[in-house]
Fold each of these.
Amino acid sequence: MKIWAHRGCSQIYPENTLLAFEKAAGLDGLTGIELDIQLTKDGEIVVIHDERVDRTTESIGYVRDYTLSEIKRLHIYADSNPSQSIPTIGEVLDLLKDRIRSGLKLNIELKNSIYPYAGMEEKIVELIERYGLQENIVYSSFSALSLEKIKNIDSQAEIGILDTRVSDCLYKLKGGCGAVALHPYWRGMDLPAEKIQEYSVRAWFTGHLYPERPTGSKLDLALLEKKGITDVFLNEPEVYLNEG
Ligand code: G3P
Ligand code: CA
């Protein structure tokens, strides 16, 4: 089973921050890091899961209503660590580029199902090309149209299609969005493993995020493998990788 850090090491550090990504990048055996992108009012790509800043910062409102300089003034609480800011994708790439060049994968999820964020596909592909990191990037989205756009901009881009059920992922993949990997919710495995065995099947989870306390309960990865899952996006990758 391949292990990815979902929003970085997001159970013990605040999600989608340089701190959570730096900790993830230090884990031996990690396949990749997943993160979420949105656009500010002035069209800058920032790394944040929600369309609003309310849950993770001291402020309120939509990401798309903040300019970059305004959003950078917000704080993300991080306990005994210095408070974090919402990173730009450029800051994350600066932090991770050497690890990505040496094989760590980066899954960039375009958060554009609620607001389409005009131009986001062009901007992110152009930036990844500028950094020369194309080989180890996986683009994903719940929006098949957005992924099709990415594929039209870069025909070599690796695409993973998101949905809740694996059957819906497969349906969207066959619709021509250019995906080669299925990204279902882990409880959405509604097809026999034989039907999906030719694909990477990367399952995502809800579950405990910082600052909620970890529960200590663990997944049976062997059972998930039997369902056809090849990769898991975990908030607590360190728990599984430290096992050896
Ligand atoms: O990419 C898998 C997963 O991240 C999708 O759900 O809500 O955590 O972005 P969410
Ligand atoms: Ca995500």
Amino acid sequence: MVDVLLGLQWGDEGKGKIVDYFAPGYDIIARFQGGPNAGHTLYVEGKKVVLHQIPSGVFHDGIINLIGNGVVLDPVTLRKEAQKVAEMGVDCRKNLFISERTHLILPTHRALDKASEISKGNEKIGSTLKGIGPAYMDKTGRNGLRVGDLLDKNFTTQYIKLRLKHQRLLDAYNFNEDISAWEEEFFEALEFMRELNIVNGEYFINDRLSKGARVLAEGAQGSMLDVDFGTFPFVTSSSTTTSGVCSGLGVAPQKIREVIGVSKAYCTRVGSGPFPTELENETGEELRRLGNEFGATTGRPRRCGWIDLVALKFACMINGVTQIVMTKADVLDSFESLSVCERYSVNGQERSEVPYQMLKATIEPILSSFPGWKKDITGIQSADALPEQMQNYINHINTYLGVRITYVSNGPGRDQIIRLA
Ligand code: GDP
Ligand code: IMO
Ligand code: MG
């Protein structure tokens, strides 16, 4: 069976920590989409680690970590990350497997990402500049190079052909930064990649599933950044929702059991685009300060706001969420009162659905207010010790969504998580 764990908001919900927590219950942790735009933070023996390409099960002995075909892979990032985890005693050559169908991010994809963002001026997406969009464009445009191609003796010829094509596009953008140093790093990293376990991902996973293996599919980004269902065009270029698991790993839908949605107790977004509950005031700044809301990949300040139940309910519907993990509840500890958005006013009309075009100028959140708990919850270990005001907040969300919050995370540490009865 396959369980899915994914973000229900605009990314950075704390997926890495939660995957690390659940990992001992699984045989395989598999990334199914996204690439080094992801930054998943874990604390391993008190030490902070941010993973971009490697699945978050890597620090558990005896668990297989699989990079699925739906991912886009930057060999340079992978190599650096493998070195980082090696320093912590983990050898990726043993427990990391990569699908041969996984598309490669080339140095020119990164250059094209940057050139495209510059050309958009004020309308830029706020991309992480990791080459994600251009790499997925080459995949759907049927030009891209895949991990399996690395083992082909004609790889360099194929690379040069694609590079020339990219150069014509870069010329059209008037982009003339020298990327030769990136290319040098890239070719060095390819040598490293050839030593890794490159497998036929779909047979690899299905063979193990047929023998009873338990798989946890680890989402990157969040549902509201999905290329189809997110706030287009301010989205990423992959399917971040449950459907991406089937196409990104080669598993059939009936293999999927639980869909665990991760949501913060409030809401953040990094990069441009609509964010109806954004607080561009002192309260927003307070959330950023208390939640240390700065991007794990780019260091950019994250935009902060109240929890958006309209968007969360939409994400539960699209993903078929069966349970929710609420993270960063402790960040709300000091607030006198909390607000939740239950409806939008769209051009003056009340709506409880996410509109197709979510331009902030036309959307106002309609908020209800709840008393805060005003208590430090970071040391609490059992559900009955949670403050009553927090139980009310959770019950209200459960009722609105029709899906239960089953865990509350009350700090970044590995053990700071409470199972609700
Ligand atoms: P991901 O991309 O979904 O894995 O999330 P990120 O790692 O980008 O961002 C989540 C941040 O919140 C990280 O710095 C985590 O260490 C931190 N974090 C996760 N859970 C909690 C929590 O319950 N409380 C607090 N205070 N921080 C948390
Ligand atoms: P994790 O897995 C938060 C955002 C970028 C930008 C948009 C498109 O850590 O939750 P891209 O580089 O994908 O072309 O950028 O998506 N974005 C993320 N925001 N968390 C992420 O990943 C993100 N990955 C991309 O900021 O707005
Ligand atoms: Mg992140």
Amino acid sequence: MSERVWNPIETAPVEEIKALQLARLIHNVYHVYNNVPYYRQRMDEAGVKPQDIQCLADLAKLPFTYKQDLRDTYPYGLFATPMTEVVELHASSGTTGKQIVAGYTQHDIDIWGDCAARAIVAAGGSPKSKVHVSYGYGLFTGGMGLHYGAQTLGAVAIPVSSGNTKRQVQILQDFESDILCCTPSYATYIGETLRDMGVKPEEIKLSAGILGAEPWTEDSRRNIEALLGIKAYDIYGLTEIIGPGVAYECSQQTGMHICEDHFLPEIIDPDTGEVLPEGTPGELVFTCITKEAFPLLRYRTRDIATLTREKCGCGRTLIKMTKPRGRTDDMLIIRGVNVFPSQIETVLFQTSQTSPHYLITVDRVNNTDTLEVQVEMTDDFQFDAVRLVEQKQHEIEAALQSTLGISPKVRLVSPKTIQRSEGKSKRVIDKRRLYE
Ligand code: ADP
Ligand code: ZN
């Protein structure tokens, strides 16, 4: 018995999905080749014509698209439809450098709404749901994506946007929303605010959270679930492909199903560009096969993940991706060692009296990289007991050293001193960039 799904394609036989993919891929390669001079030139240079794409494996013949291509053609150089057909624009929040612009036709918006609706249904939502959207509304895709999803489903979209966190709690209580959509960082902040206001999770009606747009750990999931009394589901997406809803978690919570009837995924070796077999971790690459206005071919996400077609207990047959551990450009290389901020979070969740709030500062002193981690302590930690403070510092330093393989300096800070995030959290200050 499979669980309820929004779109029948989610449980279609794999052969049917693949046939659909091929037809759509061929169609869209022609669309791009005929309408985007930049792509035509890149394909000509690579010696590949649209007619060379005859099976799904032929995808590997197409050139990659990099973020730099989007910057070089900023703002509209990769649009494949005239602006008269475009009904909406979004931009990436510019976390890593200059922003990029994505355009949508009405058809593209409809696809987006459908994908986000799948995510809401997978999280237990229905047309009866009230969906509280605390992702930021604006050029960032988070807000509008889940908004369209809720409306496509026939549920109620509540466009609260991010910010004014006490008011968020008030609205959750008064409007009786059952689904919360925001980043995991903001869900933590809302949960802490609920607790500080003396509101018990039972006093709100939330049953699920659809949380994404940034990497988060399983520990963080459990923390949010306890704070808000919900089941927390992951959702993945990026502006370049469509926004949130490229992939979403189901009841099994063992990876996210990719809307592969719209976005063809590949995993490649980031160094050689070679396509890797299923089950091998590598860089996630997407090809849009149904979008009209901004259909990227083989877009290099820089997110590291693994794909699997293993049968999922939910009954969906769409391929699954693992939670991305972070973008390759979020990864810090400190004294030659690769460090993901999430590894530090994992250690903090295993240490008593620490909160999951931390700030990493990387610097370079006398040609050597230094790593300092500020760790926020819980209310019951006694800062006036000097010996205890030192002991705790050393305990965390040793735990980080054994997890990361490099020794950091830990500084304990008082509760609520590390800035909370209403959107994507910023946990790293890399001062080395100043010298580059
Ligand atoms: P920006 O590029 O400015 O951060 P986007 O919102 O387009 O703006 O960011 C998309 C990126 O966010 C993805 O490439 C990925 O790195 C990250 N991301 C999105 N959802 C998730 C998720 N569920 N888990 C981990 N990372 C995520
Ligand atoms: Zn599933």
Amino acid sequence: MTSNSFSSLPISSAFVANLDSLGYKKMTAIQAQGLPHVLQGKDLIAKAKTGSGKTATFGIGLLQKINPRFFGVQALVLCPTRELADQVGKELRKLARSTPNIKLVLLCGGKPFAAQKGSLEHGAHIAVGTPGRIQDHLTRGTLILTGVNTLVLDEADRMLDMGFLDVITEIIAETPKARQTLLFSATYPDLITKMCRTILQEPVTVSVEAEHHDTVIEQTFYQVKNQQRKNALLGLFEHYQPETALVFCHTKIQCDEVARYLQEHQIEALAIHGDLEQRERDQVLVRFTNHSCPVLVATDLAARGLDIKSLQAVINFELPHDPEIYVHRIGRTGRAGETGIALSLFTEQEHLRVKAIETFQNKPSRCDTGESLQPNPGFTLQAPMVTIQLDSGRKNKIRPGDLLGALTGDAGLSGSQIGKIDIFDISSYVAVERSALSQVLKYFTNGKVKGRSVRARKII
Ligand code: AMP
């Protein structure tokens, strides 16, 4: 029997109170299944994806073992992308609030090496990062892993897809053998199974695969001719009229083409893929998550690890060969009790992919043709918000409250006209209602934040 109350776990009441203050009243399925083992110090293989509460599953575990008086890395979390590492870092910091003096360092590419080196020299207890940059630190002798007692591999399948196997193996070789290893993966290709055999000891396996797909995700497959694919995509938007959607493509070029096509047809869309520079990726994600871009067109790799809430539709511009990837893609809609729609385009030649999905899900796939879609030629999809970029950020000691204060005070906006605020090192992004755009830009031609002039521009 597993109880789903955090107080049933061998953790302090202060820790439980902190979880409560974060709104974590009950354990999620992966936490209820995994945490008792994790807290006993066992190795764990967890089949779980983003959104399941997996970060807290390893986070609560690793935090119990940190000795704040020992100034060395005791927990190492490997993530495939910088975005995921950022999210994991944020979540761990929240979880660590009840444990004083715990320092966490993010070790990701695209960020200055020297600052990370400095944080390590000051003594970080937890390191979260991407394999490439972690390996750089090891090579240059700026990171020591001999004190690691918890090793976490987050989205292990994706790290292997990205070709990190050798790097990961080298990193693990630098950690003590007597450690606890926790491996999280959404899928289980052979390579993962093999890797598990070598890096985990007598692991417990838990799985919370596809809990809710049947009930809340409506899946429909539309057969189209290859040359009609883009037109059919438009048809899906006109027919279903989702307010937010994630469109999956196979290649980077396809992502760019599809995003451009949608834009030409009055559907605001942005592409995200591995060819974008870090700054461009940041901007795309900021705009999508702050509701100033309703549609994201992505490759599987780029979409991995994005913590996107309340997505109404997932659209497969092309179906993946692997049915497990399909299930993973569509799992991004219909979260947390909401209903989502999963729409897929396929050609006659790709019919076998639909069949494979049918077999994998063990239920018939609902198929239709593009002709059944109700055309709505005047349809447009525009985000309710726009994003303003400011040329000041964390390094200028700007905090969200400062921007909120300037906009609701001197600039005269009401709080409800302002959306998400994202602060980066040397820039910040504020989402504002479209109708307030000119007022905000006008304010920043002379207006100040914390006594300093700040330049602002709308991101297009
Ligand atoms: P993750 O799968 O780790 O990305 O977590 C998904 C989201 O669920 C995050 O925003 C967490 O803050 C949140 N979360 C994790 N555990 C719980 C819980 N027990 N109750 C409520 N929310 C949770």
